[in-house]
Specification:
314 residues, alpha/beta, Nitrilase/N-carbamoyl-D-aminoacid amidohydrolase, 9 helices, binds 3-methyl-2-ureido-butyric acid, hydrolase activity, acting on carbon-nitrogen (but not peptide) bonds, in linear amides
Length: 314
C-alpha cells in the first residue's frame, strides 16, 4: 500500500434561488457555506452550476437586457468579490458555476479558485443539453442551447499543490468521454455542479430514475477513471420547478462516501485519501498497460451512431 495522501473536500449544495433573489443575497449564502466548509476543515469546496441565479434556461426569454441580467461579464465582479475574499481569508479553494458573457458569446462556465483567492482555471460546458427554441405545447422547457455556446476550452486538469483537479458541468457527467479525457491527465479530483430538473421536457422517464442516473454516472466515472468526484446540486423547488438534490462525494472505488440529506443549503465533507487512485491505476485501470486506442477510433470519428463495423472474420 502506498502512503495515504489526505485531502478534505466539501460540497456546498444550494437550495433554490428564486428570480427575485439578488446576487448579494446569493453570494451571502455562498460565503456562509464556504465558512461552514472551512469550519469542518475542508481545503476545497464545490458549489453548483449557475450558482448565482435561478436556473433561467427553463424560460424562453426574448428581452436581451433581461437575458444579460443573468450573465457575469467579469469574475470576480463587485457582487462576487466577497466570495473570493472569504476564500483567501480562510485559505480554502472553490469551484463556482455561473453564466459567462465573453464579448458577445454566452457560456455556461465554471472556475477553479485557489485557496489564495486567485482563479486557477476556467471550464466552459461542452455537452449542452436541451433545445434552442421552445417546444410547442410542452409543460416544461429546457433551453440551454438557446442561451449557451458549446465550450471551447476542452477538459483540462490543473496541477495544484493539493491535487490534480478537473471540472465539468451537469450534463457533462453523463458522458464517459468527459471523465476519460481527464483520467488520461491523471486527474485526482473532478468537481461538478449541476441543476437537474425532476421533470424533463425530452422524455417521460419515471422521476425516480433522475437520481439513479445521476448517481450511476458519477459512480461509474469515478471507478473507471480512478478519481474522486465532488458533485454539488442546486436543489429544491425553484420558481415552481423541482430539482433533484443528491450532492455527494464519490471515491475511486465508485462508492458514495457522503451524500446530502436535504434539498436545501447544506454542506457535506469527506477526508479523501488521494492515494487510493494509485491502486486502481497500478492494476485494473493501468491505462498504459491495458488501453487499446487503436480500437477506439469511432469514438473520435463519429458523433452519432453509424453503420455497424462487423465483417466476416479473417
Ligand atoms: N443543467 C443540465 O445540464 N441539466 C441536465 C438535464 C437537462 C438532463 C442534466 O444532465 O442534469
Amino acid at each position: 500500500m502506498s502512503a495515504a495522501k489526505k485531502l478534505r473536500l466539501a460540497v456546498a449544495q444550494l437550495g433554490p434561488v428564486q428570480r427575485a433573489d439578488t446576487r448579494a443575497q446569493v453570494v451571502r449564502r455562498l460565503v456562509d457555506l464556504l465558512h461552514e466548509a472551512h469550519g469542518r476543515g475542508a481545503r476545497w469546496v464545490t458549489f453548483p452550476e449557475l450558482a448565482l441565479t435561478t436556473f433561467f434556461p427553463r424560460w424562453s426569454l426574448e428581452d436581451p437586457a433581461e437575458v444579460r441580467s443573468f450573465f457575469e461579464t467579469e469574475m470576480p465582479g463587485p457582487a462576487t468579490r466577497p466570495l473570493f475574499d472569504a476564500a483567501r481569508a480562510k485559505g480554502i479553494g472553490f469551484y463556482l458555476g455561473y453564466a459567462e458573457l465573453d464579448g458577445e458569446t454566452q457560456y455556461n462556465t465554471s472556475i477553479l479558485v485557489g485557496p489564495d483567492g486567485r482563479i486557477i482555471g476556467k471550464y466552459r460546458k461542452i455537452h449542452i443539453p436541451g433545445d434552442a427554441s421552445s417546444r410547442e405545447g410542452a409543460a416544461l422547457q429546457h433551453l440551454e442551447k438557446k442561451y449557451f455556446a458549446v465550450g471551447d476550452l476542452g477538459f483540462p486538469v490543473w496541477d495544484t499543490p493539493d491535487a490534480a483537479i478537473g471540472m465539468c458541468i451537469c450534463n457533462d457527467r453523463r458522458w464517459p468521454e468527459t471523465f476519460r479525457v481527464m483520467g488520461l491527465q491523471g486527474v485526482d479530483v473532478v468537481m461538478v455542479g449541476y441543476n437537474t430538473p425532476s421533470g424533463y421536457v425530452q422524455w417521460n422517464e419515471p422521476i425516480h430514475l433522475r437520481m439513479h442516473h445521476h448517481l450511476l454516472s458519477l459512480q461509474s466515472a469515478a471507478y473507471q477513471n480512478a478519481c474522486w468526484i465532488a458533485a454539488a446540486a442546486k436543489a429544491g423547488v425553484e420558481e415552481g420547478s423541482p430539482m433533484i438534490g443528491g450532492s455527494c462525494i464519490v471515491a475511486p472505488a465508485g462508492e458514495i462516501m457522503v451524500r446530502a440529506f436535504s434539498e436545501d443549503d447544506e454542506v457535506i465533507n469527506y477526508m479523501c485519501d488521494l492515494s487510493v487512485s494509485g491502486h486502481y491505476r497500478a492494476n485494473i485501470f493501468n491505462f498504459a498497460a491495458h488501453r487499446r486506442p487503436e480500437h477506439y477510433r469511432p469514438i473520435v470519428e463519429r458523433t452519432g451512431a453509424g453503420a455497424p463495423l462487423g465483417a466476416a472474420p479473417p
